[in-house]
UniProtKB/TrEMBL annotation:
It comes from the Bacteria. It comes from Aminobacter anthyllidis. The lineage of its organism: Bacteria, Pseudomonadati, Pseudomonadota, Alphaproteobacteria, Hyphomicrobiales. It is a multi-pass membrane protein. This is Tryptophan-rich sensory protein. It is found in: Membrane. The chain crosses the membrane at residues 5-24, 44-65, 72-92, 98-119, 126-149. GO terms for cellular component: membrane. CDD domains: TSPO_MBR.
């Protein structure tokens, strides 16, 4: 039973933290006024996509934590979560697209690092990050394009 309470804790921290940061750093007028690339998705897509991704991130972290709570994969999982939670305040809050690009590049490296190290501890946990890696790779391209265009 304790393991499922831990899962709930991971979900609350990751999904709750992500939703809270998203709410506190809504894009607003500044973002609406930016020149955007042709592949910029509609704003409504971000909430559902991030909600699913945050659930996958939480489950992956929980699975690794159950097997090796102090290992390298868990430390990288924590690092990627910090970088993830840092990006919105940097990009939207501070309106620093260049600094946001550096944060998201570091995030992408951390995601790939987690996938590689987690696979040795729990193969499924590593694969749970695949959609996250794809989305953040796309978001990195989007961030870079916004920075370039503006």
């Amino acid at each position: 039973m304790n393991r499922y309470i831990a899962l709930l804790g991971f979900i609350v921290v990751v999904l709750g933290g992500g939703l809270l940061i998203g709410y506190l750093t809504l894009p607003g007028e500044w973002y609406a006024g930016l020149a955007k690339p042709f592949f910029n998705p509609p704003n409504w897509i971000f909430g559902p996509v991030w909600s699913v991704l945050y659930l996958l991130i939480a489950v992956a972290g929980w699975r690794v934590w159950l097997r090796d709570p102090h290992g390298v994969a868990m430390r990288i999982w924590i690092a990627q979560l910090v970088l993830n939670f840092l990006w919105s305040p940097t990009f939207f809050g501070l309106q620093q697209m260049g600094l946001g690009l550096l944060v998201i590049l570091a995030l992408l490296v951390a995601i790939l690092g987690f996938m590689a190290t987690a696979a040795k501890v729990d193969r499924l946990a590593g694969w749970l990050f695949a959609p996250y890696a794809a989305w953040v790779a796309f978001a990195t391209l989007l961030n870079a394009s916004l920075w370039w265009l503006n």
